[in-house]
Amino acid sequence: FDGPMGRITLDFGYTPLFNTAGEVALIFAESRDVTELKAAQAKIDETERLYRTLLDCTQLRQGMLTIDGEILVANQAVRAIYPAGTSPVGTIIWDCPGFDAQARQWLRDGIRRAGAGEIVRGEVCSRENGVGTWFEFTLTPVADATGAVTMIAAEARDVTELKAAQAKALKAEKLYRTLV
Q1: Widest CA span of the chain, in angstroms?
Q2: Fewer beta carbons under 10 A from the terminal one: N or C of the chain?
Q3: pLDDT band (50, 70, 90) for residue 1
Q4: Quick one: DSSP state of residue 110?
Q5: Mind spelling out the 3-state secondary structure of 33-80?
Q6: Cα 9 to Cα 34: distance, rounded to the nearest angstrom
């Protein structure tokens, strides 16, 4: 609506008023100016879009978890390991595709420790599509205003190539030591 003070957004509501016979006798109409509310929502939407874009453009697997390990939010790198039309949201992290019993146990323990306030780091192997991939996990507790841990930020970085290079260097060092 273009008014004397500029462009405003109005929200309209209608309420029927009934007579004693149960018939609509009047319709009460009301409107309210929601211009500021719409502008604030547009800013929130844009901020959310920017954060989602930032999370989705990285190759790191990132997500927010409950203190029990349930995935609340996951970036594109995590969503990509799920079949089309499915979502990791609502899944327990150790139930993600590819984790063996040892990885699941490490994740359970890590979630418990992060839920108690500890930053937890470690390496976990995943076998998605039969290929072994090593991830360096960081589980970071997220506290509310009172200091209580309410969520866990999870991040997993693919370190497969780094581990292969380290193994190659170790093998070369062992060979060198046998020659010297």
Answers
A1: 106
A2: C
A3: low
A4: H
A5: ECHHHHHHHHHHHHHHHHHHHHHHCCCCEEEEECCCCEEEEECHHHHC
A6: 5
- Rounded CA separation 7/34 (Å): 11
Tokens of 23: 């018939």
- Residue corresponding to tokens 């030591």: 177
**Considering only 3-12, 119-128, 168-177, which range has the smallest mean pLDDT?**
3-12
- Which residues does 22 contact at the CB level (< 8 Å), separation at least 6? none
Q: Is residue 134 over pLDDT 80?
A: yes
Strands (E), the chain: 2-3, 6-7, 10-18, 24-33, 61-65, 71-74, 120-128, 131-143, 149-158
| Per-residue pLDDT tens digits for 82-92 | 888 888 999 99
Beta carbons within 10 angstroms of residue 118's beta carbon: 14
Contact 91, 108 (CB under 8 A): no
Residue 47 pLDDT: 78
What the block records as the tokens of 77 is 């790198």
